[in-house]
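2024-03-11 09:14:02 DEBUG pipeline.ingest accepted 1 chain
2024-03-11 09:14:02 DEBUG pipeline.ingest length=283
2024-03-11 09:14:03 DEBUG pipeline.predict start
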Amino acid sequence: MIVLTFSCPDRKGIVASVSKILFEGGANIIESNQYSTNSSTKAHFFMRIVFEPESLKGLNDINQKLNGFSSIFNAEFKLTDTSVKKKAAVFVSKEDHCLYELLWQKSSSDLFLDIVCIVSNHNILLPVAESYRLPFIYAPYRDNAIEQEELIKKEFERLKLQIDFVILAKYMRVLSKNFINSFCQNIINIHHSFLPSFPGAKPYVQAYQKGVKLVGATAHFVNEKLDDGPIIEQDIIRINHGDDINEIKRKGKIVEKLVLAKAVKLFTEDRIIEHDNKTIIFE
């Protein structure tokens, strides 16, 4: 199966044009979803189509015609083969709950991806990597984040790792602009609050001090601003006046690991389109 995702300024004829291209290429459409912002001035159109190509030649013809479509409609499109697993590097620090959830969902076939390595600024989780027979890259804390990231990149090259995206599974370091751009911003982070509430450090402490009754977690793409990237998935859990900081953290971890795994699943299935620092999610 092939997934086609695209977005463009909304106008008449978009769906008809794409459908014609797929029909002439011998494709059989399995699933189709679309959305328009419905703005009176700058409406934007988004679409995700799953189709079965008739042949490799037919797929090449479709790709060629989509390039022409892209020029006419000012569209950005992507074709993805669903049989090819995306390759991820998982970054962690000391906490293991998000990492274990990703590994468990992968082993149970709930997540269709390859985890090619685990990267950490601590060596506490080395036994986890060894038990799953995964390369473990230890990059000790450096005052200069760029030096630390250069060490990681050199290890990627030494191990000849191919990486499509990065998962920050409780990696407690701020990434540099250069590192973010080197992965075309295909970096997913889990933040332990319901953004935009309580960004930055110690959000559970902030929540406790404010006396909130709900805490949450947010999975988002990483950009150059702290905890400001397009939001992919969020969820919440209820707390009460008797919960101390440790209990709030315990409850929060339950939400964190599930929200991150859901965001990774949406990404690996090409269900996300970014636009204006927001995401369109086709579930």
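2024-03-11 09:14:41 DEBUG pipeline.report DSSP finds eight helices and 13 strands in the chain.
2024-03-11 09:14:41 DEBUG pipeline.predict end
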